[in-house]
Amino acid sequence: MRRLRFLLRPGWLAVAAVVAMFAYLCFTVLAPWQLGKNTSTSHRNDLINRSVDAEPVALGELLTPTGFADDDEWRRVVATGSYESNKEVLVRLRSIREQPAYEVITPFRLGSGETILVNRGYVLPVQGTEPPTIEPAPTGEVTLDARIRRAEGTSREPIEEAGHIQVYNINPAQIGSALGVTPVQGYLQLDDGQPGGLGVIDLPQTDSGPYLSYGLQWLAFGIMAPLGLAYFVRAEWRERRKATNRDLADPADDVQPVSEQDAPEVSTPSEATGSDSAEPDSEPEFTLPTRRERKSRAKSASSTHTAQDARLADRYGKGR
Q1: Residue range 161-173, pLDDT digits in tens
Q2: Which is nearest to 61 in space by CA: 44, 83, 78?
Q3: Same domain for 177 and 216?
Q4: Pair 134, 215 in one domain
Q5: CA–CA separation, 293 vs 296, rounded Å?
Q6: For the chain, how many structural domains are there in total?
Q7: Mean pLDDT score of the chain, rounded to an integer?
Q8: N or C terminus: fewer CB in 10 A for the chain?
Q9: pLDDT tens digits along 305-319
């Protein structure tokens, strides 16, 4: 346990906290977010595919006092009533075939007396963001073929610009408050060739998208982050253990003590010269070499190097 004390240092604690938080977010926020989008997209695609082959039904069969059931979205319906042509809003910041567009929403009064919003289609702006001249909805009673759509959430308050009330989402409660009507929840999106129709809004593509793979990737990241931290902790621990073992190995343990019997004998200068006049307990005397001795040693060294150079030259043929 003492060797793992480095994990309690502030640096390692900060790294461990970041990794733990990242893994927590992967499992509780990021992966569920992508997997939830995959589930909702798959459910939407299933509803669209079922509506393609289903016969249209009367709107009154699906309409309830609170609107429509969630599983009824994209159902094909037939509605009879009349447009309230003098009340209309534009939905801004829409994209149709990668082009900025407006969607036109007009209230539609049913024969039963209820009011429902109808998305008549899209128009493209002119001169930047200015809406074009919009063809008014027909008057009198008409019959519409449409699809049921769920209400969108609200983001910002409606604005009035270029002579139109403009909103950011198709929310019946917000639009009804701006127009002074009380529509039911949900709205109708017109099919092609309907009375009052404008540019037809195509059905969404029924591919599942990348959400499932993204969700699985976040799960993998949540698993790999702690494993990566454990790998680096193990590597650091092993390095510290090796360093500790090297520090514990004392070099003095490898030196064998020398006994008095094995110690070499050191002769004093008096013994080397054979003089008996030196006292046994006196320390050896060291004297500097004289000038003549230094010259003699230098001459001897020079002659030795000269002889060595001659031998080397003769060996390698330089003297030949």
Answers
A1: 988 999 999 999 9
A2: 78
A3: no
A4: no
A5: 5
A6: 2
A7: 81
A8: N
A9: 566 566 655 655 554
